[in-house]
Structures are given as C-alpha cells and as structure tokens.
Predict the 3D structure of the following.
Amino acid sequence: MLKTIKRILIFSGKHRGKLIQSFALDVIFSICQAMPIFAMVYALNSIIVARDTGENITMETVFLAFLIMAVGLAGKILFGYLANEKRSIACFSMCSDKRIEIGDRLKRMPMGYFSSNRLGEISSAVTTTIGDIENKAGDILDRIIVGFVHAVIISIVISIFDWRMGIISILAIILGMIVNSILQKKSIDIAPKRQEAQGALVSAVLEYIQGISIVKSFGLGEKSNRAVDEAIEESRKRNMGLEKVFNKLIALYLYVFKIAACTIILMSCYLFSGGRLSLLSTLMMVVSSFVIYSYIELIGTVSGVLRLLDSSMDKIQTVEEIPLMDESGRDIQPENYNIELKNVSFSYDERKILDNITLTIPQNSTVAIVGPSGGGKSTICSLIARFWDVNEGRVLLGGYDVKEYTCESLMRNISMVFQNVYLFHDTILNNIKFGYPEATMEEVVEAAKRASCHEFIEKLPEGYNTLIGEGGSSLSGGEKQRISIARAILKDASIIILDEATSSVDPENENQLQLAIRELTKYKTVIMIAHRLSTVRNADKIFVLSGGHIVQSGKHEELIREKGIYREFIQIRKKAIGWNLG
Ligand code: ADP
Ligand code: MG
C-alpha cells in the first residue's frame, strides 16, 4: 500500500506538492470528523458532574458542546471540500501532463514501434489506463489517509482516558494492516491469472465476432460457440476462485476491527463494574468503539483498486521506457541542404529492401526516384526523415548524420507530401497551421492561395473554420491534397519530399495540383517519387531503383537513350494513362 502511494507521488511529478497539500487537508478533515467525540466527552462529563453535585447542567455547557460539534461539522465540510478540490486538480493535471508527455515521446520513437499490436497498447495507455489513474488514484489516497488518520486520532483520545484500551485499539490497527498487506500480496500474485483469463476471453470473443459472417453463412452457430463458452467458463472459474480467496481475507480484516471494538466495550464494562474505570471513561469507550474503525474498515476493499493502479502505472512506465531515437541528438541548423546516402542498407525485418545504396541530392536540385512498386522508394524517404534507422551506412543532411539531429531539428528542414493525405479532424485553418502553429491568418491565406485552395475554401459555408470530416465539408481527393500542400508551403521547409503526391488525383484537379506543387517546390531541394512522366522528365536527376539497388541514374534524355529499366518503363507506361509524354 505504501509502495503504491509512493509510486503515485512519483507519478504526480510537478503536481506532487498539491497532492501532499491534499493529504494535509485530509488530516485536518479527519480531526474535524472526530470533533463530535470531543463534544460528547465534554457533554457526558458535564452530565456526570451535574448528577454527582445534584445540579442541572448549564446552558453554557449545552452551547459549548453544540459549538464544538458545529465547528467540527463546518470544518469537515470545508476541509473535505478543499482536500477534494486539491486532489482532483492534482490528479487531473498530473494525468493530462502524462498524456502530453507520452504524446511528445511518440514523435521521437522509431516507426518500428508503431506496429499494429503496439498501437492498441499505446492508445489504451493514454486513454483508459491513464483514465483509471485519473479517476481512481485520488479516491484511493483519500480513503486510505482518512481511514488511517481517523482511527489513529480516536485511538489517541482513547489512550488519554485509558492506556489499556488505547493499546488494544492501536494493536488492532497494526493487525489490520498486516492482514491488509497479505491481501495486497495475494492480489499481486493473482492479478496476472485473472488478466490471462480475461485476455483469452477477449480474443475468443473477438475471433467469434470477426468471423460472424462465416458463422452465420455456414449455420455453425451452435458449434463455433464452444470456444467462446469455454473461455467464459474459464474466466468465471478463475474469478470465482479469486473472489473466494479475497473475501476470506477481507472478512478477516473486518473481524480484526470488530473483535477489537467488542473487546474494548466488554473490558471497559468489566473494569467499570469492578470500580476500576470511571463512568465517563466507560461511556467514552463504548461510544468510541462504534466509530473508531468505521473508515479504516473501508480500506479492506481497495486492494483490488490499488493493484489496478499499480498495473496501470506499470503500463505507462513501459511506454515511457521505450528508448527515444534522438536521446543524444543535438539541435542542428545545417549550413546547406545537400542530402547524401552512403552505402545504405536497410530491411524492415529479414528481407533486405535497400542494399548498399549510395546517392547524392545536391541542395536546390530536384531528383526523382522511379522504379517498380514495392522497390523501396518510400523507404528511402523514410530513412532521410529518420522514421527508421539504417542497418548499415549513413544518411547525411547538410553534412551531418541524421542521427546527430534531434527529431525536431531534423524535421524542421523537411516537408513531406504523401499520396494518402491525412487531415486531422479539425478546422481547415488548424490543418494548414499544423506545420507552423504560430502563423497569422494572413500567412495561412497566402499559403492557401499559393496552393490553389483559397478559392474553394472561401466557398465553404464556414470558410477556413470548416471542420474537416464533418457534414457539408466533403472535400475531394485533390482538394485535400492541396490543403496538405498549403500546410507544407506554410511550414516552408528547405527539403520537400513528394511521395506519389499526385497519384490518386482526378484529371480535373491535376492542373491545380501541379500549380500548387510548383509553388511548394520553388527554390527547394526536392525529392519526388512519381509515376507520371510529366513530373519526372524535368528532374535534374532521376534514380532508378530496382532490387534494392540504384540501377540507373541521370537525366531523362540520357536515360531514355540507354538500354535498361527506365526505357522499358517509359515504353510500357506510355500506353498507360499516367505516363503520357505530353
Ligand atoms: P515503394 O515506395 O517503392 O513502392 P516501399 O518503400 O513502400 O516501396 O516498400 C518497400 C518494401 O518494404 C515493400 O515490399 C513493402 O511491403 C515493405 N514495407 C514497407 N513498409 C514496411 C513496414 N513498415 N514494415 C515492413 N515492411 C514494409
Ligand atoms: Mg511508396
């Protein structure tokens, strides 16, 4: 339990102060909560004194007892509210910070990390897992601290009246904590088994649902249910088994406190009857024994939640422990934008995609990479932008190895436009500003004009504030592509990578798109992958990539004269729609 509290404190980062303040407020809250006991002691004492002296209790006594109660109640409400507020703010802020921190780290992780199964891991980490911490950590801390402090304060009051009872009440707290720690240990041992059964159940159900059309069409409803049924049964058995173990321990935990309370009542009555305990102390013990453990008892049921918090923090930690690509990177501003690949070899897994590639792209030149689909053209671009690290060789930008840069300082120099445009579910304005968030409206409009998209944006009902992806804003492929070009124009990076940027655009949009691309690539270092000859033929240099090698390189006029893949390509593609020579 203490370990988990400590972890939450570490997890809270710069909001630790607020959490600790909320603990302190919790302590004051607990003292206020115990105030009625003080009022009662005072009132009982006055009644007994009055009885002994044969007088009535005075109005002042009644008033004072009432005042103590009222102060206690008011304090309880006030400090309860303050503690709750501080704690909620601390929990929500620490979790939102964590989400942002993980988001920032994701940008600096190797692309290899984002395989499909990891995507589930990451998205659940930033959504539900952190959500669990956000919602539960505060409550749990509150319950533990209030329960503990309340019991200790009342035990101290009891000890003042009678040290023997004090010892019993404190012993019960210690014993209760021992049972609780056994409960924690059991829950740590057992949790993986539960998760295992849960995991099996989820995959069985998923498989069933994914194959539901086959199940239906083959009428196998009955039979194919078996795997799911078995998984459900297994999960039920495990969960029942676990609950049995837990319930026994939780019952034991509660027994400890109930027995201690009964012992205090019995002993004080016994001592009273022997004349060894005053009436006031006896009444005091009897009343206190009913309330002393009422809050600490509630801690018994939190061990499951503590475990959940622990495993949630474990999951976040695994994401945080993934090494960043640019841990040792520097913020470099290169003096030129020459790009060089030197003896680069690369494979995603076993299969070699690039084999000993060497090529140079001088600053301000336009090069095209052509070759069969799947040949590794996009991969070369990904290596330049360091989405992946090369297996052998070096990729240099402005004379520096891309590994020397921080991801941010590297990407400052590069804009990429892909075939499949990804626009965020946000306004057109924000989508354009994505590459340069500080841009003014004038700069955005200027970029949009250069990307030939200002006109159609103006015609939309909400103009630049139109939400993309919502009703009324169905943009065509070409329009989306031009927005992504406006984004790149605004970013104004020195190196532009166009990866089949014009491939999926209909002929009507083609002209405007070409104009936009011309604007984007003015005075830049350009790498284009294109399947249209019209775009490739004007390149300063064309690299033909095949079988992981650069098999030909040169200008269009040179390559067309050479016997080789390029000429064959042109001849085949000339007949196809995209490769007309005009
Ligand atoms: P091109 O752009 O020339 O069509 P790519 O560079 O996209 O080719 O891909 C080269 C090869 O690498 C292809 O066979 C492709 O299937 C494979 N590949 C691409 N991306 C990945 C990836 N993330 N993981 C594994 N293999 C990949
Ligand atoms: Mg490609």
In short: Confidence is low (pLDDT under 50) at residues 577-582. The radius of gyration is 36 Å. Residues 221-273 form the longest helix (53 residues). Residues 377-378, 499 surround magnesium ion (ligand 2) (CB under 6 Å).
